[in-house]
Every structure is written in structure tokens, then in C-alpha cells.
Amino acid sequence: MAVYRIGLLGAGRVAHHLGPALAQAGHQVVHIWSRTLPAAQSLASSVRGATAGTELAALPPAEVYIIAVPDGAVPAVLAAARFAPGALVVHTAGALPLAVFAARPEVRGGVLYPLQTFSPGRQIAWATVPLCVEAAEAHGQQQVLELAASLSADVRLVSSAQRLHLHVAAVWASNFPNHLLGISRALLTEAGLPWELLHPLIQETIDKALTQPPFRVQTGPAVRHDEGTLARHEAALQGRSEWQALYKALSTSIQQVQAQLAVNNEPGV
Hints:
The protein starts with a strand and ends in a 6-residue tail after the last helix. β7, α4 and β8 form a beta-alpha-beta unit. By secondary structure, the protein is α/β, with parallel strands linked by helices. The protein is elongated. The longest helix has 31 residues, at 160-190. It is built from nine helices and eight strands. It folds into two domains: 5-158, Rossmann fold, CATH 3.40.50; 163-263, Orthogonal Bundle (N-(1-d-carboxylethyl)-l-norvaline Dehydrogenase, domain 2). Strands 3-2-1-4-5-6-7-8 form an eight-stranded mixed β-sheet, with helices on both faces. α8 packs antiparallel against α9.
């Protein structure tokens, strides 16, 4: 396995999980950059031998630089940074195309997108995380493939266009359900009921969705066109107009999808 000296630009959620994982895989994380020194120092303290700094124009030499900042900040970081000549520079953004490197034609650009949700205090099983990679040229592609393979057993070449669709799908699969679960928990709290009541239902829903096409196993009052129950639910949400609107929109979407499947004589997709 190739071992790289790595400069990690960013000290947020992705970087806090990625830095130690890179070190554990045998790479040398030589430097952590962040806009704020305490953030860089905090992450550097968990990665043996890493220095910390806030100067993009004075980055230490490395073979690979990984930009792990919010998507909207990548162009500014890329424009201001001074990388070692010949180094590979990759970003970790899901919805940002490889074309972002066009503004720095002298930079060998690539993508290392980890398809996972990252939160403080959570342990990530990196060996199972799909890593979606892309690069502008063959040598860069080989390097990013090697780097990804040192972290995960699931490494895939994914184009910018495919990655955008994947990122949208990931939002539907993770961020939106998490928000809906938050609403469920809040409603139970307001009713004086324990969150644990929903745990078996949530688990079964996820298990079904992972083994069968989700549209095929859709249940609930919307798919049954149970107008009485739908009306009572909407009335119960009267004090939460934004959640009431979301309830109506999702119920309508369920009915529209099921109607279309019926027209096409499809059991689900």
C-alpha cells in the first residue's frame, strides 16, 4: 500500500473523523489547517505528529492535500492555498464537480467523497463506508484509488454527474428521515409519551426498506386513502402549521407515486 504525507484542510465533522482514520491506515498527516487555530489544534492533538495552522499560503509539503470543508467554501480555499508542486489535491464534497479545479489548472485535482453521515461522538466503521473517487488524470486517479483503498473495502469510480445524483439521494435517505424522526420525537414529547415506543417501528421500517423496494412496501393512511384518519392527523397538527404542510405534501406524494405505479402496472421500484 502506498503511504502518503497528507495535509488536511478543514477541522469540521468530516475532517475530525477522517484525520485519525488516515493516520490509523498508516499515512502521515503532516498538517491540519482551519480558519481558527483552536479548531486546527484540537484535531491535530488527535493525530500524532500533525502541526496546526491557519495560513493557506504557507502549507507544509505533502503528496496529497485533502480539502474537507463545506461545499461552498471549497472554491475560496482552493484559490487561496499554495500546494506543494505536483501534489494531488482532492475535495470531499458530494455535490461539487471535479470542474471546480479548473480555476487552478496547475493543480492535480481529484475527489474523495465518503458516503456517510458524520457526527461528534460517533464511531465510523471506515472499512464499510463507500468511498466515491474521481480524478482529472490517470496518475491522480491511481493515487486517489490507493488512498481510498487504505481506508475502505468499498471504493468506486463515480463521475461528477453521478455523484450529484448520489448526493441528492443521500439527502433523501439520511437528512430528510432524520428530520422526520425529530418531528416524531417532538410530537411524542408534547404528548408525554416516551420516544422508545417508536423504536421497533423505526427498526422494522428500515429493515424492510433495505430488503425490499420501499415503494412496494408502503403502508399508512395515505396509501389507503383513509381520508378520515388523514383529516384527524392534520387537525392534530393544527398548532404546527409547518409540520402540517409537510404532512400534507408527503401524503400527496405517496398517493401520486402509488397511483403512477398502478397506471404502469408496477408493484414498486
